[in-house]
């Protein structure tokens, strides 16, 4: 018997980076596709969009912390 195991995503058990990735996928309307077909079903354009937005959000979060620490 071969087949993929279906993984149930528990948001409480995700690390912060994974959680952010799912949040961004939801924001741009790809979460349903990811949940039904998996991350491998995304095109390179969709994956790049998610990666770019994740990077931008991480920079914004860390940028705000650096500014407050410097004062």
Protein model, in words:
It is built from 3 helices and no strands. With 71 residues, it is mainly alpha-helical. The longest helix is centred in the last third of the chain and has 27 residues, at 44-70. It is flat, with a radius of gyration of 15 Å. It starts with 15 loop residues before the first helix and ends with a helix. This is Small, acid-soluble spore protein, alpha/beta type. Residues 62-71 have a biased composition (Polar residues). InterPro entries: SASP_alpha/beta-type (IPR001448), SASP_alpha/beta-type_CS (IPR018126), SASP_sf_alpha/beta (IPR038300).
The separation of the N and C termini measures: 61 Å
How much β-strand is present in the residues? under 5%
Major sheet: none
Number of strands: 0
Outline type: flat
Radius of gyration, CA atoms, in whole angstroms: 15 Å
Count of DSSP H/I helices: 3
Give the arrangement of secondary structure elements.
Layout: H1 16-27, H2 31-37, H3 44-70
Keywords:
71 residues, mainly alpha
Can you give me a brief rundown of this structure?
This protein is mainly alpha-helical and about 70 residues long. The chain is flat, with a radius of gyration of 15 Å. The relative contact order is 0.11.
